[in-house]
Amino acid sequence: MELAILTQSLFMRWDNDMVCSNNKRMRPYTSSLNSELGLIEYVMCDKTGTLTQNKMEFRQCSVGGNVYLDPMSGCLQPQASNPEVSLFLRLLAICNEVVPEKQEGRHELEYASQSPDEIALVKGAAANGTILLNREPETLTINHQGKEEVFSIVANLEFTPERRRMSVLVRGEGGEYIVMSKGADQMIQPQLAKDDPTTQEAMRHLDDFAEQGHRVMMCSARSVPEEEAQEFLRRKEAASVELEGKDERVAEAYGMLERDMKLVGVTCVEDKLQDDVPGTVQFLLAAGMHVWILTGDKLETAEAVARTSSIVSPTMTISHVRSHDKNGVEGEMR
To answer: How far is residue 182's CA from residue 316's CA, in Å, rounded to a whole number?
Structure first.
């Protein structure tokens, strides 16, 4: 048996189909690796960075009921005098945690962030004449269509897996307060003002983007009276020192600010599949394994990626289970 395992490991090492792009061959370090691989029945993988390259490209957006097909070409800039487009570009440049960095000997700014999505959107704003120039702990500077604007960062409402959105409260040079928010449509839509006439058309565009397999986000904003901004800061400060129920109190303070928002736009970011994903998936399926995608993306996006990666075939019947509790799931599965 040991001789058979050794021989199998040698064949694995010599296999020319298991060589990385840098010509590094597979090297099994555990003698039982092949036997353990044979026991696998289910392969569960994340979408972003596993099936896809995690290289985000800003492909489309919806602003004011209009779809712009290639934002990186600067197609929004001729419309920058439109208040809706102007606010959208400002939001992309401001509502993020991106840090601009100037490289020695180069004129172009480099952008650093933990989120490739945010970098793609900030670059998209820059391609249309709204450039994030500098970020300090309490201020940020943008160049909006040739004019520098400095904003004070009053509060950051950070992104968390539970919130699935981020917001920022800023004060302009004229003293006006504005809250900007972007995130998953399921989290942004309940915050929108009920009489916002652009929501229905934007949702249709968002669904179209998602069905193409792209990552989508909604953007919203509203002006905040100074008295409300100060009350929010007071509640947020009081909640931050609570020993019990701190998370609930902070969420209540955030909810005070993130309400009656105006829809600003929808972003569509493409994340291409890794090389040879469909073929690899088919190999696993032929070996009798079940391949699952685990993702927090929109359902339509996940379905589109499942199809293009061949996890879902055209002949399969797809059922949607939307319940969030055990009893509900069991009922839908019957």
So the answer is: 35
Q: What's this model's pTM, rounded to 2 decimal places?
A: 0.83
Q: Which residues of 47-92 form beta strands (DSSP E)?
A: 52-63, 66-68
- Dihedrals phi, psi of 297, to nearest 5 degrees: -75, 170
Instruction: Count Cβ atoms within 10 A of the Cβ of residue 72 and give its class: 0-12 exposed, 13-18 middle, 19 or more buried.
Output: middle
Is 238 within a domain? yes
Q: Give domain status of residue 8, yes or no.
A: yes
- Is 14 found in the same domain as 70? no
Q: Check which CATH number belongs to the domain holding 156 and give it.
A: 3.40.1110.10
Q: Domain of 216?
A: 52-271
Query: Any catalytic annotation for residue 247?
Result: no
**Distance from C-alpha of 153 to C-alpha of 167, rounded to nearest angstrom:** 11
Same domain, 227 and 111: yes
- Is residue 9 within 8 A of residue 26, CB to CB? The reply is no
Catalytic, out of 46, 207, 276, 325: 46
The token pair at 326 is 């055990």
Q: Are 171 and 26 members of one domain?
A: no
Residue 16 backbone zone (phi > 0: left; psi -120 to 50: alpha; other: beta) = alpha
Give a yes or no: residue 317 inside a domain: no
Beta strands in 136-274 (DSSP E): 139-144, 147-157, 165-171, 177-183, 215-224, 262-273
Measured in degrees and rounded to the nearest 5, phi and psi for residue 253 equal -65, -45
Look over the chain and give the mean of its residue pLDDT values, rounded to a whole number. Answer: 90
Q: Alpha-carbon distance 72 to 128, whole Å?
A: 7
Domain stops at, among 271, 291, 325? 271
Residue 183, in any domain of the structure: yes
pLDDT in tens, 163-196: 999 999 999 999 999 999 999 999 999 999 988 7
Count CA atoms closer than 13 A to 275's CA, side-chain side.
2
